[in-house]
C-alpha cells in the first residue's frame, strides 16, 4: 500500500469521489499533456472516504477511460493506506505525446481545473511535444567520470531532507532512475547539467553572463558601448544559481526605511523576486539553442533576466500565473529536490506580491520566439502597499497598474492588455478587484469603467 500526502486539489492532484470513465479520462489527458499528476479515487481532499472502489472495478474503470483517450495514457495505480478496497491513487506521468479525448478535446491541467485548449494553443503544445526529449539524450563523449560525486552527494542529502526519509539506493541507481544517466551509465543532458564537473565543456550554452551597466542604456561611463562589470558563471546548475545570485546581490544597493521606531534595511529589489526570475531562467531555458547563454542585465533603473528560448507549450504571458508547463521536467524535478523550487507554479504569484509589497511596479514579462525576459523595476511608490492588496494575479496587477497610469480602465481596454484570455475570465478578474475594494465600478453595461477606490 502507498501513503499519499494529502494536498488540496491543484496542478498535480485531483480527487474523484465517484468512479466515472469520462471524468477520469479528462483527468488522464489533462495530466499527461501537462506536468503529470495523481488522481485519487474514493477520498475527498480532507482524506475522508466517500465511496468504496474495489481493485477489479478500478481496472475496468481504467480500461474504459483509456478507450476515451487518443492515444491511450500510460498510468500506474496503488491502493492507499486505509480500509481495504476504499481508495486508490492513479499516477499519470507527463507524456511526450499529445493526447486528446475521443470527442477531439485537448485538455491541460490549469490550477485545479482541466482546461480545453484552442487551436493555436494545441499547435504550440504539439510542437513542443514533437521535439526530441533533449534532456534524456546521451551527451556525445561524456562519461560517468564527468559527473561530480561531491555534487551528487549534496543532491542526495538535500533530497533526503525534502522527502523526510533517507535515500537508500546507491547513487548510480538514483542517477539512472531520475534520467541523469542511461542504462549504461552514460550521462544525459539533464545529468550533465545537474551534476557535471564542467558541463560547459560539452554544453557551452549552459552558462550565464552577468553584466552591470552604469546607466539605463547598455553603455559605459564614457557614453560609449561598454559596462561597469561583467562576470561569466559556469558549473552545474545549482552552482550557476548560487554564484549568479551572489553576484546580483553584491551589486544591489541597499536603502533603509523606518517602520515604527525601527530602522529596516531594504534592498534595491525583493530578494525572492530576483531569485525566482533566476531559477526560472535556469530551469526553463531551451538548452538546445546554442551560441547564447542566460543573461542578467543590471541597469540603473531595472534588472533584466533573459532566458534563451520562447515560452514552451501552451504558455503565454497572460497565463503565467494560473498555468504551468516545463520544457525541462527533469531539471525542474532535480532543482525541486535541491530546494530551489518551493512549490510548483506559485513562484510568479509571490514575485508579483513581493514587488508590490515593496512599492515596485509589477514585473514585466516579454515573450519572443527565441527569448523570454523578466524585467524588475527598482522604482518605488511613496505609499505603503497593504499585504492584502498584493494578493492578485499578474493580469490583475497589470490592470491596477494601467488604472494608476491612465486613471481608469474599461473591459475593452483590459481585453487589449490581455488578448489571449477569455472575456469571462477578465470579467471575473475585475469583479474580484471590485469585491476586494481595490477598484470602484462606474456606469453600467457598455459604459462601465473602473477606477481606483
Descriptive report:
The protein is an alpha+beta fold and 453 residues long. The chain folds into four domains: 13-117, Schlafen, AAA domain (Methyltransferase, Cobalt-precorrin-4 Transmethylase, Domain 2, 2-Layer Sandwich), CATH 3.30.950.30; 135-202, no CATH class; 205-377, Heat Shock Protein 90, CATH 3.30.565; 392-452, Arc Repressor Mutant, subunit A (Orthogonal Bundle). Helix content is 33%, strand content 19%. The protein contains 13 helices and 19 strands. The chain has helices at 21-33, 55-66, 119-130, 149-163, 171-177, 189-195, 237-251, 271-284, 329-338, 347-357, 394-406, 411-417, 423-435, and strands spanning 13-16, 37-41, 69-70, 76-79, 88-92, 100-101, 107-110, 113-116, 208-212, 229-233, 254-259, 262-267, 294-298, 302-308, 364-368, 371-377, 409-410, 439-442, 449-452. The strands form six sheets. It has a six-stranded mixed sheet with strand order 10-9-13-14-16-15, with helices on one face. A hairpin with a 6-residue loop joins strand 18 and strand 19. The longest helix is centred in the middle third of the chain and has 15 residues, at 149-163. The chain is globular, with a radius of gyration of 24 Å.
Give me a quick take on this structure.
This protein is α+β, with helices and mostly antiparallel strands and 453 residues long. It has helices at residues 21-33, 55-66, 119-130, 149-163, 171-177, 189-195, 237-251, 271-284, 329-338, 347-357, 394-406, 411-417, 423-435, and strands spanning 13-16, 37-41, 69-70, 76-79, 88-92, 100-101, 107-110, 113-116, 208-212, 229-233, 254-259, 262-267, 294-298, 302-308, 364-368, 371-377, 409-410, 439-442, 449-452.
Amino acid at each position: 500500500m502507498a501513503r499519499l500526502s494529502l494536498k488540496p486539489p491543484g496542478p498535480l492532484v485531483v480527487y474523484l469521489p465517484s468512479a466515472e470513465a469520462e471524468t477520469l479520462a479528462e483527468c488522464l489527458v489533462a495530466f499527461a499533456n501537462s506536468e503529470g499528476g495523481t488522481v485519487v479515487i474514493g477520498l475527498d481532499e480532507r482524506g475522508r472516504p466517500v465511496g468504496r472502489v474495489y481493485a477489479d472495478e478500478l481496472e475496468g474503470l481504467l480500461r474504459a477511460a483509456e478507450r476515451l483517450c487518443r492515444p491511450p495514457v500510460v498510468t500506474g495505480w496503488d491502493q492507499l493506506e486505509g480500509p481495504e478496497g476504499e481508495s486508490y491513487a492513479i499516477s499519470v506521468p507527463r507524456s511526450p505525446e499529445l493526447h486528446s479525448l475521443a470527442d477531439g478535446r485537448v485538455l491541460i491541467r490549469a490550477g485545479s481545473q482541466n482546461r480545453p485548449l484552442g487551436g493555436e494553443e494545441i499547435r504550440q503544445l504539439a510542437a513542443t511535444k514533437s521535439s526530441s526529449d533533449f534532456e534524456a539524450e546521451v551527451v556525445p563523449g561524456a562519461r560517468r567520470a564527468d559527473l561530480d560525486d561531491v555534487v551528487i552527494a549534496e543532491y542526495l542529502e538535500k533530497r533526503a531532507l525534502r522527502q523526510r526519509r533517507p535515500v537508500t539506493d546507491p547513487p548510480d541507481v538514483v542517477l539512472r532512475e531520475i534520467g541523469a544517466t542511461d542504462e549504461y551509465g552514460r550521462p544525459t543532458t539533464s545529468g550533465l547539467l545537474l551534476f557535471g564537473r564542467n558541463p560547459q565543456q560539452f554544453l557551452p550554452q549552459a552558462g550565464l553572463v552577468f553584466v552591470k551597466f552604469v546607466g539605463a542604456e547598455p553603455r559605459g561611463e564614457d557614453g560609449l558601448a561598454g559596462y561597469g562589470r561583467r562576470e561569466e558563471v559556469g558549473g552545474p546548475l545549482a552552482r550557476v544559481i548560487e554564484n549568479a545570485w551572489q553576484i546580483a546581490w553584491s551589486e544591489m544597493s541597499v536603502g533603509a526605511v523606518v517602520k515604527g521606531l525601527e530602522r529596516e534595511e531594504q534592498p534595491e529589489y525583493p530578494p525572492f523576486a530576483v531569485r525566482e526570475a533566476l531559477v526560472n531562467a535556469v530551469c526553463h531555458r531551451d538548452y538546445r539553442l546554442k551560441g547564447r547563454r542566460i543573461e542578467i542585465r543590471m541597469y540603473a533603473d531595472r534588472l533584466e533576466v533573459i532566458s534563451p528560448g520562447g515560452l514552451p507549450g501552451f504558455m503565454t504571458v497572460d497565463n503565467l500565473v494560473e498555468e504551468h508547463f516545463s520544457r525541462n521536467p527533469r531539471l525542474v524535478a532535480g532543482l525541486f529536490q535541491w530546494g530551489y523550487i518551493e512549490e510548483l507554479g506559485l513562484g510568479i504569484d509571490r514575485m508579483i506580491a513581493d514587488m508590490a509589497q515593496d512599492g515596485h511596479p509589477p514585473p514585466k514579462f516579454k515573450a519572443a520566439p527565441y527569448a523570454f525576459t523578466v524585467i524588475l523595476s527598482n522604482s518605488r511608490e511613496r505609499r505603503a502597499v497593504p499585504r492584502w492588496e498584493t494578493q492578485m494575479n499578474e493580469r490583475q496587477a497589470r490592470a491596477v497598474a494601467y488604472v494608476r497610469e491612465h486613471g481608469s480602465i474599461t473591459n475593452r481596454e483590459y481585453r487589449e492588455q490581455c488578448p489571449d484570455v477569455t472575456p469571462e475570465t477578465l470579467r471575473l478578474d475585475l469583479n474580484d478587484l471590485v469585491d476586494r475594494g481595490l477598484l470602484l465600478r462606474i456606469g453600467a453595461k457598455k459604459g462601465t469603467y473602473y477606477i481606483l477606490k
